[in-house]
Amino acid sequence: MQPHGRPAVSLDFYTAQSPFTDPGALTPHYAGLPDDPAELARVARDLLIHRGEGEAFGYDIPQDRLHHDAETRYADDILRLLVERDDAPLARRRPLQDRFVGVCRDFALLHCSFLRHRGVPARLRSGFADYFRADGFHCDHVVTEYWDDRRGTWLLADAQLAEPALHGGWDVDFDLMDVPRDRFLVAGEAWRAIRERGADPATFGLHPPQEGPFFGERFVAGNVRLDLAALNKVETLLWDVWSEEEGVEPGRPLSKSARVPYDRAALITCGDVPFDAVRQLFAEDDVLRTPRTVLCMAQYNGTSEVTLRQDLP
């Protein structure tokens, strides 16, 4: 047993790379990476630029980069692009023109890959952050969750926040390696806030209703599905969908029967996540389980079916 009664098997599971985080043939480039989780977050931050950060950095992101980088779902492919653009050691801060153009999931994916390489149990968590806007809206977001041996618990870390120059536009008054759980709600917690505590579904999503359709109960349900998949080390793109009920008209509520699997998933993906339960539910529930072929609804490159590398539970 691990500290605080944490079963060793779950920590071993999250220390091993997944097909999505495995650097593969690019592993030699991990030589020289630091050991400290915060320093690894900074490395990930300095290799990437969020596709929405061009104005903040005063950099006009080339359209071909937005299209070319958009559907890169595996860490080794991200690393390959980075090395092709600049073969310097990964710990060296990249100029903007040589960075991978990604989203929050990509910061978390590389951070998770680095942590696992260093023997630190880590996993991606999908959910909603309240620190990107001042109007109380909870923004769709992905962070890293890593095991802190000293404290004997899982902590949330946001590698995207590891750029102090951008903090002026965000409400960041906390340790980026210990994000408060009331500032970032894992998807199941957001779902339960809506279903059990009367939270307004319109305050959760990619953006508020007046800015587009990607908000509300249906959108949160999709994040519950993504978070359960990530807890099973299936770290898909955020626009990979595999539930027809969930994948259309995000602002429209789900039917009563369609809520059932998300109610079940939310109960076990909050708080002290029970490892065996998340493994079993993902393996047995046809709505929640990621199929081998998903529908990728990419913003820039359009919708297409994509067959994932691995055989899934």
Description:
It holds the Pfam family Transglut_core. InterPro entries: Papain-like_cys_pep_sf, Transglutaminase-like. The chain has 313 residues and is an alpha+beta fold. The protein has one domain. 32% of the residues lie in helices and 16% in strands. The strands form 3 sheets. Strands 3, 4, 5, 6 and 7 form a 5-stranded mixed beta sheet that branches. A 3-stranded antiparallel beta sheet has the order 8-9-10, with no helix packed on it. α2 (37-47) crosses α6 (104-117) and α7 (187-197) packs antiparallel against α8. The longest helix is centred in the C-terminal third of the chain and has 15 residues, at 217-231. The chain is globular and about 55 Å long.
Give the topology.
Layout: H1 8-15, H2 37-47, E1 48-50, H3 54-57, H4 63-69, H5 75-85, E2 100-102, H6 104-117, E3 122-129, E4 138-148, E5 153-157, E6 184-186, H7 187-197, E7 204-205, H8 217-231, E8 240-241, H9 260-268, H10 275-284, E9 293-298, E10 302-307
Parallel strand pairs: 1-2, 4-7
Antiparallel strand pairs: 3-4, 3-6, 4-5, 8-9, 9-10
Helix pairs in contact: 2-6, 7-8, 7-9
- Report helical residue fraction: 25-40%
- Global shape: globular
Number of helices: 10
- % residues in beta strands: 15-25%
Summarize the main sheet: 5 strands, mixed
Q: Helix/strand-derived class?
A: alpha+beta
The whole-angstrom Rg is 18 Å
Organism: Streptomyces resistomycificus
Protein name: Transglutaminase-like protein
Pfam families: Transglut_core
